[in-house]
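Troubleshooting entry. The earlier prediction with NAP gave an output that would not parse, so I re-checked the input for stray whitespace and re-submitted. Clean input:
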Amino acid sequence: MKKRKLRNLEVSAIGMGCMGFSTGYGEIPTENESIRLIRLSHELGCTLYDTAEVYAVFRNENLVGKALEPIRNEIILSSKFSPTPLPGQNLSEGKLTKSGLHKTLEDSLKRLRTDHLDIYFVHRMTDEIEIEELAEWFGELIKEGKILGWGLSEVDEKIIRRANSVTPLTAIESEYSMMARQWEQNEISTCEELGIGFMAYSPMAGGLLSGKIQSNTEFKGDDIRRTITRYSKENLDKNQPVIDLVKKFAAEKNATPAQISLAWVMHKPFIVPIPGMRKDERIRENLGAAEVILTDAEYKQLTDELNKLKIYGDRKDEDIAKLGDLVRNKLFGSSGVPIKGLDGRVGKLQK
Ligand SMILES: NC(=O)c1ccc[n+]([C@@H]2O[C@H](COP(=O)([O-])OP(=O)(O)OC[C@H]3O[C@@H](n4cnc5c(N)ncnc54)[C@H](OP(=O)(O)O)[C@@H]3O)[C@@H](O)[C@H]2O)c1
């Protein structure tokens, strides 16, 4: 597997997003099957794994910790700090304090069966604290050896610059795909300028760019595609020209649409996509995308054609939160503890 650098950390050119093993995409595999799939990806060369305390509230970290324990020293592991307290997290000092951050990290480390994280992200920035203060606290965690580096998710250029000037950022983790280019102009170019890595989440637009989702595909359970506008039947139909474009390029390059969509994201060498994948053949297909290289001319041609197409719908935290009771019941039974959307983000629970 080819390697890339997220600032100073060497990782496989494609990583694995582990959220879907516990939540977010409907029915989940059994624990044994998830562990087998995660380890299979490593056998195939993957060395970057992403999780978060909020994914199925701690359960994903527990699973990922168990799966990676025997290979912990061979991989790069990232997890995320949610500024909002999660159910059962009774931090007397509050979560958005230096000691709250330390305690939260210690708990993640226990679940992940490790003594350090390679990258510790702030899952969502909040206006309850200045970014400089958070940057200082994360810098202290680096000095203590509890984390090797840190990052932010879904933040704008100003926040990136302010944070990086206090404690150099290892990576930004934000949505990026042929259907989600909102960070391309300013934030991705800022990462390039400042030597910050970029981990592209939902690089396949939740599977859409694989060309395998039909407009009559039914999303079930806690599948976030039930409420994200990009996947409404109407928008699936309207976005078909994008899928057709990817399919056309795939045929020309003797690759699959999934691989072309990842190769497009990876055209810049500091970008590492972290697709979610829960089947043997998808893991092989997606990791195989590291061998699919778009020349500058091919990338330009594909991007020029993409630029002519309008993208319908998007992936908003508020829409994910509309899963409301469904997600809450799956995660907490009838405990009724309120959450801020599946990713611990903004939005209101539906009653
Ligand atoms: N920082 C943040 O706020 C944030 C937010 C969201 C996600 N993330 C991270 O990013 C990771 C990836 O995000 P994502 O899961 O939305 O990414 P994604 O790869 O764009 O979408 C995952 C979906 O695509 C399907 N898929 C993947 N490869 C496929 C292929 N070759 N053919 C057909 N379908 C394919 C998966 O199916 P199966 O799973 O059924 O195989 C799954 O339904 C997450 O696991 C998480 O670690 C971070």
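This one parsed fine. Confidence is low (pLDDT under 50) at residues 333-351.
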